Inverse folding.
């Protein structure tokens, strides 16, 4: 059974800082991995999708990496802004982690 | 296309009543997923469809829950004899799946989520 873990559970950083969110999964036989953002009381917004054959994906200030052999993915956010404050969720196909709640302080 | 839509957005019901939720996916998507999310947790997988076929159902899902996608387009999720523990946000998502000529799965594209239906059982 696939289990997805995200560390840390919460993170608070000052504006402008670069940061890394971590996701680990137990079964490396995956088709893809997806990172989402969720604002309080809202639905999920897709940020990046990494197919199993890829090592990383980039979109603007976001970069996600995938290492299937070690069962890990990271989401790198450059030059963080207060608008980045949200919960970030990692999903391996249909299994989600509990998320990392990010707060970026002005 | 306006994305994935869900109806209703909010539902308040009394314990023991039946409720039904509807999800309209992005029109060309062949996969549709249902999840449940409680406060502070990530979405929990409930079930998914490939076209009209229900391919997987979570073992955590009791017999009170049933889902259909009769024509491979919209889907409904019904909860019978609701309990207070059913109170949660119910999320629907859709995606496009790609297959080899043999029929085995090649990959799936991005999952797009609807806004959710918030269920409160009194």
């Amino acid at each position: 059974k696939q289990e997805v873990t995200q560390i840390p559970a919460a993170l608070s950083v000052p504006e402008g800082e670069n940061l890394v969110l971590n996701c680990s999964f137990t079964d490396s036989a995956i088709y893809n991995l997806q990172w989402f953002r969720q604002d309080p009381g809202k639905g999920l917004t897709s940020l990046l999708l990494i197919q199993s054959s890829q090592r990383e994906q980039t979109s603007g200030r976001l970069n996600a990496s995938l290492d299937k052999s070690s069962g890990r993915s990271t989401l790198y956010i450059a030059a963080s802004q207060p608008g980045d404050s949200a919960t970030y969720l990692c999903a391996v196909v249909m299994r989600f982690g509990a998320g990392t709640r990010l707060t970026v302080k002005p | 296309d306006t994305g994935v839509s869900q109806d209703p957005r909010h539902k308040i019901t009394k314990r023991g009543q039946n409720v039904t939720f509807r999800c309209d996916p992005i029109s060309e998507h062949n996969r549709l997923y249902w999840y449940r999310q409680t406060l502070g947790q990530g979405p929990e997988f409930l079930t998914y469809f490939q076209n009209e076929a229900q391919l997987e159902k979570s073992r955590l899902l009791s017999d009170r829950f049933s889902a259909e996608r009769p024509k491979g387009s919209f889907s409904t999720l019904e909860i019978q004899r609701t309990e207070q523990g059913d109170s949660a946000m119910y999320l629907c998502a859709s995606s496009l799946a790609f297959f080899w000529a043999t029929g085995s799965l090649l990959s799936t594209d991005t999952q797009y989520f609807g806004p959710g239906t918030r269920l409160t059982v009194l």
